[in-house]
Inverse folding.
């Protein structure tokens, strides 16, 4: 069974969520070919995908693909499915992967399921489990078309290193003007930071922090933990933090190993974005804050006292 | 400017989710339904664009009769007319085909949707419709400005945003801060009663997935409370029990 995996990179590195997608495909016991787009990722980085189970990597090293152009990406990926005879495409759920895979599904007449949380069951019909109602429930669905596309949620699988290395081949699917009908005129992106959807640990602050000037202690704790920073919706609505840090029902959905919520009450819409975290730590001065019901660990206390102490204690424990 | 806004009819964000009939049906007992929050942003921006440039707004829902109060609410917020495709929205593939069929008839300058529905969270329908119609599809879109038939948008990317330019027609999956949610006023509610709500039968059949069963996540274990004066204990737990340090 030939499986194609679309891998994304950021700053020349394959994203962790894409490594998980490769590992997921390998665990399906398929013959795994990855496809990478753009000229910013080099051959040695691509061949390292072998370490996660890819045997081959197709690389369309076209500068026009250095940015995530939705239509162009979907054209190349559909062409790669065709040329590899791959009936299955696996990718990571992401702000780029999902809109791209939707177009690929139409181009290739495939069944598409996003937010996949477990390996498929292929013993009878091909079924997968996915999260629905923003993490409040799961559905098992069968994919009825011959071709199938799975967009997987972070932490759907544990990464295993195999020690292998993959061969890298250049791929050159023709692109036309229509593929670039939406032209990206500028990009405004933080660099060198851990991306929120990719992070293993997330430290988030809410309205309890009183103002943007108090984010220093959040950043210090995040730095000590190697974490990304997040926030609640009112915090980004008030402009204390950038919008792409807003976690929840209407924001980013995260599934880290540890989510730390500081001065966040735990409204159901916020919980919807964090309920697939492995562990949740809540720091809130109100013992009745609803977030404690969803937490694994909790401290009742004033964030302005507890957070600096916690940062020090983590530093000391290293 | 002719704008098509596609809306979902979904449980309010505070709803407790439960299932019936041996975990094969959503339990709508006691559930309040709303316009999908992202679709509501799309609608709000459509109303603003209409105020700026004139034109008309059509709202579209693929759903059974029970979605009509939600559709009326969209009319009260400022849409001029509504279309309901009379069918159970079985999966995103089916829904996208219905929307593309309506859009293909209507010569819309833009099709605005939410970035995702909050029941199935597919984040797929806009891309599928864009591909079916052979026009660009962008999502998640944070701002949308128009100058004649040229649109400028910002799209959220991981760790930031990008600015794009393109011509109409296109499909956009919207999210905040594209516009502020609008609350219908009395005049809107009154006029919504007489605005046209056309019910049409599904154009084409065909699904790509089949639901087998639902399930709820396992109950969460009890929270371990640690004294605020004892953060050292917390660090040990994070290290040795949770194994995250
Ligand atoms: C349709 C819809 C969608 C929404 N989507 C989202 C979403 O995606 N994400 C989201 O976050 N919200 C969302 N919301 C808003 C949500 O309902 C809450 O209003 C919001 O999450 C509250 O943010 P908060 O916890 O930061 O603020 P608050 O509710 O004001 O809570 C502040 C908390 O800080 C604590 N606190 C105060 N001072 C201190 C201190 N010194 N030390 C420690 N703790 C302190 C307080 O006890 C309190 O619990 C949505 C709402 C709606 C209606
Ligand atoms: N049944 C439906 N009727 C009308 N529009 C829909 C329907 N389902 C989804 N949409 C639109 O497609 C967007 C993305 O939905 P989804 O792909 O299900 O996450 C939604 O925000 C709506 O704008």
């Amino acid at each position: 069974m030939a499986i194609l995996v679309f891998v994304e990179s950021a700053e020349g590195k394959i994203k962790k969520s894409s490594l998980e997608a490769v590992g997921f495909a390998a665990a399906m016991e398929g013959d795994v070919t990855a496809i990478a787009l753009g000229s910013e990722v080099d051959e040695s980085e691509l061949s390292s995908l072998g370490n996660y189970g890819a045997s081959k990597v197709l690389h369309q090293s076209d500068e026009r693909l250095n940015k995530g152009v939705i239509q162009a990406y979907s054209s190349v990926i559909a062409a790669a499915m065709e040329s590899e005879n791959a009936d299955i495409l696996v990718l990571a759920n992401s702000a780029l992967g999902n809109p791209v895979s939707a177009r690929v599904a139409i181009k290739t007449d495939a069944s598409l399921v996003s937010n996949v949380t477990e390996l498929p069951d292929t013993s009878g019909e091909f079924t997968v489990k996915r999260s629905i109602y923003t993490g409040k429930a799961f559905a098992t669905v069968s994919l009825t078309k011959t071709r199938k596309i799975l967009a997987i949620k972070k932490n759907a699988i544990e990464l295993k290193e195999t020690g292998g290395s993959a061969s890298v081949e250049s791929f050159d699917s023709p692109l036309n003007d229509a593929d670039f009908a939406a032209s990206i005129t500028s990009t405004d992106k933080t660099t060198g930071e851990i991306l929120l959807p990719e992070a293993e640990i997330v430290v988030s602050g809410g309205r309890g922090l009183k103002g943007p000037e108090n984010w220093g202690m959040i950043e210090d704790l995040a730095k000590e933990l190697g974490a990304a920073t997040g926030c609640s919706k009112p915090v980004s609505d008030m402009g204390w933090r950038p919008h792409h840090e807003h976690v929840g029902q209407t924001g980013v959905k995260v599934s880290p190993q540890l989510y730390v919520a500081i001065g966040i009450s735990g409204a159901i819409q916020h919980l919807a974005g964090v309920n697939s975290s492995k562990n949740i730590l809540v720091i809130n001065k109100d013992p009745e804050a609803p977030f404690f019901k969803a937490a694994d660990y909790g401290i009742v206390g004033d964030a302005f006292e507890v957070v600096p102490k916690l940062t020090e204690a983590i530093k000391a424990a290293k | 400017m002719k704008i098509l806004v596609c809306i979902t009819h979904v449980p309010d964000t505070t709803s407790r989710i439960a299932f019936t009939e041996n975990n094969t049906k959503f339990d709508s007992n006691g559930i309040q339904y709303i316009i999908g929050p992202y679709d509501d942003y799309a609608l709000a921006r459509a109303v603003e664009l209409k105020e700026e440039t004139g034109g008309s707004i059509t709202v579209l829902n693929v759903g059974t009769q029970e979605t009509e109060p939600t559709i009326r609410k969209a009319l009260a917020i400022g849409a001029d007319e509504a279309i309901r495709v009379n069918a159970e929205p079985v999966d995103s593939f089916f829904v996208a085909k219905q929307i593309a069929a309506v859009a293909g008839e209507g010569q819309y300058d833009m099709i605005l949707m939410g970035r995702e529905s909050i029941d199935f969270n597919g984040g797929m329908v806009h891309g599928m419709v864009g591909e079916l119609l052979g026009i660009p599809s962008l999502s998640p879109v944070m701002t949308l400005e128009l100058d004649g038939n040229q649109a400028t948008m910002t799209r959220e990317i991981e760790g930031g945003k990008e600015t794009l330019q393109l011509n109409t027609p296109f499909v956009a999956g919207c999210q905040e801060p594209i516009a502020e949610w609008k609350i219908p006023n009395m005049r809107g509610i009154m006029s919504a009663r007489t605005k046209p709500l056309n019910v049409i039968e599904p154009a084409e059949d065909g699904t790509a997935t089949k639901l087998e069963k639902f399930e709820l996540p396992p109950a969460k274990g009890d929270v371990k409370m640690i004294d605020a004066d004892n953060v050292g204990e917390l660090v040990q737990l994070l290290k040795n029990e949770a194994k995250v340090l």
Notes: The first helix of chain B runs from residue 37 to 53.
